Amino acid sequence: MSGFEALRSQLATPLQIGSVTVNSRVLQSPLSGVTDLVFRRLVRRFAPDSMLYTEMVHASQVCHVRELPKLMEIDPQERPISIQLFDCRPGFLAEAAQRAVAEGADTVDINMGCPVNKITKRVEDLHSCAIQTLLLRSSGQSLEQSLFP
Fold it and tell me: pLDDT (tens digit, 9 = 90+) per residue, 133-146?
């Protein structure tokens, strides 16, 4: 078996994420401003077994609105799909994660450090997130325990 065939075989091996089985190890990454519904449909056409991701969504966009942001629009044919959330407040993340799953997400991805300028320019938010992460670590509480008490 050539190196390419071995890689192809390995990428076709199912991946288990919690209770979700992805029939490929190819994951379409969440890209802010790119991974909208149209883009994901295109990816699904060429990678029918891959895990799809929505764009990154701020948890407060999910918690404070009646209608979910267009960024979270999910087509039932997109499964498996994950919604990527970011925020530094565990309560908002927990509420947003529960709502994302209720709206059809198979998994929730929590962004813990995005290099995109529109995110990192808010230094005070990053500082707050870093402090909260340190507090979680020092309390011995995992992020999952904090999000889903």
Answer: 555 555 455 555 55
Cis peptide leading into 30, omega within 30 of 0? Answer: no
Which domains occur in the chain, in start order?
A: 7-147 (3.20.20.70)
pLDDT, tens only, 80-105: 989 888 877 777 788 888 888 888 88
Out of 63, 88, 114, 129, pick the active-site residue: 114
Q: Are 107 and 20 in contact (CB under 8 A)?
A: yes
Q: Is 63 a catalytic residue?
A: no
- The structure's pTM equals 0.71
User: Other CB atoms closer than 10 Å to residue 55's CB: what's the count?
Assistant: 19
- Six token digits for residue 126: 């990053």
DSSP states of 93-135 as a string?
HHHHHHHHHHTT-SEEEE-S----HHHHT-HHHHHHHHHHHHH
